[in-house]
Amino acid sequence: MKAPRRWIFTMAALLMTAGCSSSPDAASPASGPASVSASPSASTASPSPKETSAFCRDLSTFQVGVIAYRGDVGAAIEGEPLDFKELRRKADLVADIGEEMKASAPPDIAEEFSTVLKAIDTSASNLKSGAETRDVLDPVYGERNSPAFDAVDNYDCDAAGG
């Protein structure tokens, strides 16, 4: 499947530009599938549904994408010009992975997750010449959606429900 592979490389580039490292030295021992499969006992254990769901599998990548998008949008607060093309690209990446995750979102975060997806979509749809800065900022920084962003940013599949 070319689309997911393309997405992985694009998201890796996004992470690199956001200041995150993809080097094995920077990853914690339990941060990725490679470290889990390296353990003999882990390969014999049956993963829980949360560990295998698209939502939980891709949550940290989604969180980083959202942080990168919000960070770039937030530059407008300081009066910096917005790079519409780059913001649309990041919004598209977040939307793509989010849509794949949406169906398997746990019930305790599903509503907030949908709110975040809609907010980023709304913000990105306002990335056009002549748009008001607040129309781009409010969906991702306004009081109405901030609790959803906080909930998704702090959500931990391992800690939820168990």
Query: If helices are DSSP runs of H or I spanning 4 or more residues, what is the number of helices?
Result: 9
Head-to-tail CA distance between termini:
34 Å
Strand content: under 5%
Order of helices and strands: HHHHHHHHH
Low-confidence stretches: 1-10, 12-17, 19-47
The tally of strands reads 0
Shape: elongated
Secondary-structure-derived class: mainly alpha
Q: Nearest-angstrom radius of gyration?
A: 17 Å
Mean pLDDT: 78
Helix content: 55-70%
- Major pleated sheet: none
Structural description of this entry:
The longest helix is centred in the middle third of the chain and has 21 residues, at 54-74. The chain is built from nine helices and no strands. Helix 6 runs antiparallel to helix 7. With 162 residues, the protein is mostly helical.
